[in-house]
Amino acid sequence: MKVLNIGDLSIKLPIIQGGMGIGISMSKLAAAVANEGGVGVIAAVGIGMFEKDYARDFIEANIRALKREIQTAKEKTNGIIGVNIMVALTNFSDMVKTAISEKVDIIFSGAGLPMNLPEFLTKGSKTKLVPIVSSGRAAEILCKKWKQLYDYLPDAFVVEGPKAGGHLGFKREQLDNPDFALEKLVPEVVSHVKPFEEKYNKNIPVIAAGGIYTGSDIKKIMDLGASGVQMGTRFVTTDECDASQAFKQTYIDSKEEDMEIIQSPVGLPGRAIRNEFIEKINRGEKKPVKCPYKCLKTCNFEKTPYCIFAALMSAMKGNFNGGYAFAGSNAFRSSKIISVKETFDSIIKEFKEAISVK
């Protein structure tokens, strides 16, 4: 695998561990991935929900928790650490400012277009800004706007296809449409970004995400123009993943037919592992929501059948009576829990085998 360069960051293995909330990818997983030469990513979404004063002081609890997780990750690794911050968060600006003040290496930002992300950079900041997009047009819009408003171009792009886990940037009818497949999206984004690279003499690598599970998958998508990949699902079933053992086990126990597209309370389709909680919601049962903090801009908590944050946190802790696990389309391929190092070794072996096939 070729080294992935994002600005002045040199990433030994072009593998970015996807940011997975709530509490799935925290400092433990991120540091372990960074130690293997990839980019470890902490998910900022709902990160303060484990703080005792979360309901009372939503803003401060999240800031405190994010600071602690970044600092803890940095204590465990000299590798590259990123933070995933959703545009849809009501505390988006606080999370971005905190990440930059803690000198995190990269901010990945999706679930909406991060149109104003560069405005938070401070003098001397070396934090790289990487938007997550689902089309070439979105990448072009961000390049134009950032250059016009901030004289800044994205340091890279993550293009996320419809096979990803969690919330998806597509309409439900687009998920199985070949025109929106990752294999189509990657060359499209590369072509939309190339004119900006040439005009401003800046390298803007495109990183592919969504449904990438093996080293063979990495080989195929890099042959189509991707400079690196983002993988989430594969890292869930690792010893270092911050989720409970029960959460990891639900991946191992899952079958292909359990991968279900749900309609999230935030107004987007999402991919999760089917369970009784989801079945109840599908039958029209509701869990009353009392929301003192309004986490997401797009969530109408007065009409939603349940709290997405509470459901994901319950699942992370292993309580599937109160929630469900988000997962990528290949989660059912998980068979056992191994270390992050063993996972990397396996991915590299798969990649080498793919290269040797003629």
Please render the helix and strand layout as text.
Layout: E1 4-6, E2 9-11, E3 15-17, H1 27-35, E4 39-43, H2 58-76, E5 80-84, H3 92-101, E6 106-109, E7 128-133, H4 136-150, E8 157-160, E9 166-167, H5 182-200, E10 206-209, H6 215-223, E11 228-231, H7 233-236, H8 245-253, E12 259-263, E13 269-273, H9 276-282, H10 308-317, H11 340-356
Parallel strand pairs: 3-11, 4-5, 5-6, 6-7, 7-8, 8-10, 10-11
Antiparallel strand pairs: 1-2, 9-13, 12-13
Helix pairs in contact: 1-2, 2-3, 4-5, 6-11
Short description:
With 358 residues, the protein is of the alpha/beta class.
Task: Using brief descriptors, characterize the structure shown.
15% strand, single chain, 358 residues, 36% helix, globular, three-stranded antiparallel beta sheet, eight-stranded parallel beta sheet, alpha/beta
The topology string of helices and strands comes to EEEHEHEHEEHEEHEHEHHEEHHH
Could you tell me the radius of gyration in angstroms?
19 Å
Q: Average pLDDT value?
A: 94
- Proportion of β residues? 5-15%
Distance between the termini: 17 Å
Structural description of this entry:
The protein is built from 11 helices and 13 strands. It is an alpha/beta fold and 358 residues long. The strands form 3 sheets. It has an 8-stranded parallel β-sheet with strand order 3-11-10-8-7-6-5-4. Strands 9-13-12 form a 3-stranded antiparallel β-sheet, with no helix packed on it. Helix 2 runs parallel beside helix 3, helix 4 (136-150) packs parallel to helix 5 (182-200) and helix 6 (215-223) crosses helix 11. The two termini are 17 Å apart.
